[in-house]
Amino acid sequence: MSHKRKKIYIFLGLAIFALTFFCVMIDFSFLRIYQGIPSMYNLVERMLSPNLSYTQEVFSKLLETIEIAVTSSFVGVLLAMPFALLTAGNITPSRHVAMILNRFFAFLRTIPNLIWAALLVSVFSIGQFSGIVALTITGFLIALKLFRENIETINENLLNSTKSVGANQIQVLRYCVLPTILELAASVFFMVLEINIRSATVLGLVGAGGIGQIMWRDLNHLRYDNLATLVLILLLTIGTIDALSFIVRRYIKRSFILHQSIESYKRAPQKRILQLILLSIVLGFWIMNAIDINYARLIMGLEQGYLMISRMIRFEWAYVPRLLEGIRESFFIAIFATMTGAIGALFLSFFTAYNTAPLKVTSFLTKGMVNLLRTFPPIVTAIIFFRGVGPGPLAGAMALSIYTTGVLTKLYSEVIENSHENIKNSILVTGSTNLNAFRYGILPETLPAFISLVLYRLESNIRTSTILGIIGAGGIGTILSMNITWRNWERVGLLILGISIMIMSIDVLSYYLRKRLV
Amino acid sequence: MNKKLMIILMIVLISAVAGCTSAKEETIRMGFVPMMDGDKLIESVEPLAEMLSEEIGVKVEAFTATNYVGVVEGLGSGQVDFGFIPPFAYVLANSESNAQVVLTALNSSGESSYRSQFLVRSDSDINDFQDIHNKTVAFVDPSSTSGYLFPGAHLMAEGVELEQDIEYIYSGGHDKALQLLLNGDVDVATTFVDVRQRYEKDFPNAMEQTRVLGYTNDIPNISVTVKGSMDADMQEKIKNALLTIAEDEEGSALLKELFNMYGFVEATDEDYNIIRETAKSMNVDLQEAN
User: Fold this and answer.
1) Residue B240 is part of which domain span?
2) Among A85, A483, B91, B101, which is disulfide-ready with A491 (CB 3.0 to 4.6 Å)?
3) Which of A44, A336, A471 is the best mutation test for B, with the most CBs of B within 10 A?
4) Hey, is A12 helix, strand or coil?
C-alpha cells in the first residue's frame, strides 16, 4: 500500500503545485472575483428576462443553422470512415502512410473554427456553402479521431483470429472493423452534430450566416434579452439532439435481434443495402440543395484560396516575439480551465450520472444545470466575467473553466452511466455507501477514460481560448483576428503554425503522461 | 474523501494568498478597440500607455480588444476607466452607464469624421441609388457603423427599403465586401473610404474595376470615452494628457506612426447624436439595451 500511496501523494502534490502555478500565471484572485460579483450579477440580471417575441426570428435562423449542421455532420462523418480505416494503427495498409496522415490531420485539427470560416468565406463568398465546408472540415476531423481511436481498441485477437482462418484484408474489414464503425456511426454523428450546432454560433463572427449571425448582432447591440432567448432556444435544440441520439442509439442496439428465422437473416443484408441507398439518395438531394454555388465561381474561389494559402506558408518570422507573447497567455488560460474543469467535472459527475447520484432528482437537476453551462457560448460568459474582473487572462480563464466543467461533466457522466453495474454493486453489497462505491469501484474503472476526455478538452480549450482574445480577455485571439482583418496572411500563417505546434507538443506530452499513469 | 477536501482547502488557501499579495497600487485601465475601418493595424498600445502614465502621474495599464462589447461592459462596471472606442460603442456605453466622450481623434486630413462609400463594378448598370432596387448589396456586419448603419440609413433615405427592395448579406469584413463585389457575388458593396487603397496588395485592380456610386453622411472618428463614474478631475487629467501628447513633437510622431491619429479635438455627447439618429432609423433600439 505504502508505495502506491506515495505515488498518489506525489502526483497530487504535483497537481496542486501546477494548479497554483497556473493560478498565479492567470492572475487568479478570489478577491477580484468576489468584488466583481455585483456587476456580474447586474449583467446576468439583464439576461434573465428573455425577449420571447423574438422567438420567431430565432427559429428561422435556427433552421438555417440546423440545415448547415446536419449536412456538414453527415458528409464529415461519411468522409471520416474510409480515412479512419487508412489511419488506424492496427489495420492500416501502411504504417508510414498512417503516420503521415495522422500528423497531417492532427495539424488540421488544431486550426480554430473561426479561421476555417474566415478563410472559406474569403474563398467561396458568403452564404451557406462556406459555413457547410467549414463545419464539414471540423466534423470530419472530430469524427476521424473518434473512429480511429475506437478502431484501435478492437481486440488484436479478434483481428488475428480472423486473419488466421485465411481472411484477406477486405474480409477483415468487413467482419471485424465494419461492425464497430457502423455501431459507432450514429453516436459519432450526433456528437458531431451537436458540436457543429454550437460551432455555428462562432461562424456568425465572420458572416457565415445562421444563428451565429443574429447572436453576434445582439451581442454587439447589447441586447441581452434577445441573447437570452437565443441561448434558451439553443439549449432546447441541444437537448432535443441529446434525446434523439439516445433514441436512435437504442433503436440500433435493438435491431441486432431482429431476425427470428434464418431466411430473414439472409435477406437482411440486401434489405439493409437498399435502405442505405435510399437514405443516401435522399440525403444526397438535400446536400445538393443546400450547396448553392456554380462551377466557374468555385474555380475562381479556389484560385483565390490558393493565393491565400501560398501567402500563409511564407511565414513572417519577424513576428515570432508577438506570437510567443500571445500564445503564452492562451496556453495558461487553456491549462487552467482544463484543470479546474476536470476537478469540477469529477465532483459534478457523481451527482449527474443517474447510477451514482444520491437521488434521481439530483441527477435530473444537475443534468439540466450542466446542459446550461455548456450551452452558454464561452464568449458570452467571458463578457460577464470581464465586466466583473476587468481585462486580463482571468476573465477568459474563468469563462473557459465553466464551459469545460459543463462539457466534461456531460461526457464523463455518460462514461459512468455506461460502466458495468456489477462494479458498483459488488462494492455496495459490502455495506458501503454510494460515495465509496464511486470512489473505489467506478472511479478507478473509468479513470483512463476520464483522463483521455480531459486531454481531448485541453486540445479544444486551446482552440477556444483563441476566440476569447477578441473581447480583450487575453491570449492570442486579439492579434489573430486583427491580422485576419488586415489580410496579413504571412502573419496569420505563422500564428496558426504556433498554435499547432503548441497543441501537438501537448499531445505528445500527454501521450507519455497517459502511458505512465494508466 | 478527506484527502479531496484537504486539496480543495489548500487550493483555496494558496490562491487566496496569491490573490492578496497581488494587490497593486492605484492604476488606470485603458481599453483600446481599434476601428475595423481604421488605417493602421494597432497591436500594441504600450507606448501610448507609458506616455500617458508619465503625463498623468498614475500608472496606466492598457490592453487591446478587437470587439468593443467587453470594453463597453468594463466601462459600465468601472473595471475599465477609459477607452478608445468606435463611435457606435460610445453611444451604447453612454446609454448603458452614462460613459462620457471627451475627445475625438483627428485623421490624416485633420478631420474628426470620415465617410463610407457605395462601390459598384465599373461596368455596372447602376448609376444612381434608384437603380439599386432588386440588386444584391453586401454590408459588412450588423454592428459596423461604416459598413451597415450609415450606408443602410442612407439607402433608406434614398427610398430603398432594405427588407423589400434589395437582397443583402453581411460579408464579415470591409475587405470581404470588396472581394464579393469583385467576384461578382454582389452588385453593390458598402465600405469605408477607401478600402481599395488599404487592400491594394490583395486586390490590385480594384481601382479600375470598381467605381464609387456615392458617399454617406459624416461619421465621427474613434472616441476617447471615460467611464460614467469617473470624477471630473480625472477626466480633465486624461483629456489634457492626451492633448499634450498630441502637441508634443515626440508624442505626435508616435500617434501618427502607430495609431494614425493626427491629434484630438474636444468632443461632446451631441456630436454623437448623428449615430443615435442613424441607429434609430435602422431600427437599432438603444434604449432597450438597458
Assistant:
1) 27-111+221-282
2) A483
3) A471
4) helix
